[in-house]
Design goal:
GO terms for molecular function: disulfide oxidoreductase activity. It contains six helices and seven strands; from the N terminus they run H-E-E-H-E-H-E-H-E-H-E-E-H. By secondary structure, the protein is α/β, with parallel strands linked by helices.
Length: 180
């Protein structure tokens, strides 16, 4: 290798590395891929929050539904909660996954802020969250009537997220279910 080319080798490596990093930085950090897309919702058996019963996959699948990972220690969950309550009032099926939380605190939260969930799964140890690949709360999964995870949203579900992303998918899955 000529001596002059050796002088430029560090610069060339720097440019290649910089381009690689710039491409990575341009990605939307909310777009976290999920290995579960188009795969079955995880099998689980966990207690229902505030009820004397166990819930499993069969008890919470069979209809198009949102599965919302939430916790009382999550500030963003408090922000999205009123909108989830509004969606539930419009007939959107929503199950809660109370993630690594205390039952007493979670039940108090639902009494104070309202309960938009058909049921809340008490994921005290985070085992279901681990199987889902949860990074933190809030996260929301759209699951079809066959129990397949169709979409994952990391962050707050608000009017913009619902109207531009989740609602069109939710309605499409509802139509597919009705046409079967």
């Amino acid at each position: 290798m000529p001596a002059r080319l050796k002088l430029f080798l560090p610069l060339i490596l720097f440019v290649v590395l910089a381009l690689f990093l710039m491409r990575g930085l341009s990605l939307d950090p909310k777009e976290l891929p999920s290995a579960l897309i188009d795969k079955p919702f995880p099998v689980f058996t966990l207690p229902a929050l505030g009820r004397d019963e166990l819930l499993d996959k069969e008890a919470v699948t069979g209809e198009v539904a949102l599965f919302n990972v939430w916790a009382t220690w999550c500030v963003s969950c408090r922000v999205e909660h009123p909108y989830l309550t509004q969606l539930a009032g419009q007939g959107v099926a929503i199950y809660g996954i109370n993630y690594k939380d205390e039952d007493t605190a979670a039940l108090g939260w639902l009494r104070e802020l309202g309960d938009p969930y058909i049921a809340s799964i008490a994921d005290r140890e985070g085992t279901l969250g681990l199987d889902l690949g949860v990074y933190g709360a809030p996260e929301t999964y759209l699951v079809d009537a066959d129990g397949l995870v169709r979409y994952r949203h990391v962050g707050v579900v608000d009017q913009r997220v619902w109207g531009t992303i989740l609602q069109p998918l939710y309605q499409q899955l509802q139509q597919e279910k009705e046409s079967q």
